[in-house]
Amino acid sequence: MFYRPEDGHGLPHNPFNAIVTPRPIGWISTRGSDRQDNLAPYSFFNAVAYVPPQVMFASTSAKEDRGDTKDSVAQIRDTGVFAVNIVEYAMRDAMNLTSGPWDRNVDEFAHAGIDKAECDTINCPRVANAPATLECKLTQIVKLPGEANFAVFGEVTGVHMRDDCIKDGEFDVLSFNPLTRMGYRDYSVIREKFSLKRPGE
To answer: Which residue numbers delimit the Flavin reductase like domain (predicted)?
Structure first.
């Protein structure tokens, strides 16, 4: 099968997300200048550079009470900071609850019963019990083709790792089992890993 996206795929559901999979989930926490806290998951998320460490996430829809985007991007525009919380399998239901189209005045931490902590290098909340959190300073927001597509890039200014996730000097993903996003309404979980040496090593 071949299709051009501009012509449509002819399938019951869009296969694009199922092709680019699995994707890590960035659970983005923000705080507006009005002190309103927000927490929302984004599966268009990844690390993009080592030195300095940098990450990105993309928002692809809008809410009526935010104009051309959603709460996360609107608040990052406002304050210039955000945090990326890593989602473990045990927090899948709480993460899913924060994905709803809630009013801009809803604090998703409270709505989903998630413990909140303060970041160290930025004025922003974080998920207190997350396996890891990356505190980020905005570097740029890129408007992508499409009505409400924005890519947000940030430099990591602080890193939290939960103590029980550090094993033999390494951050051990199997100690918490990262949740990943697939296509449609599907998710997966990392429960095994293997290593490969690069040529010449």
So the answer is: 18-173
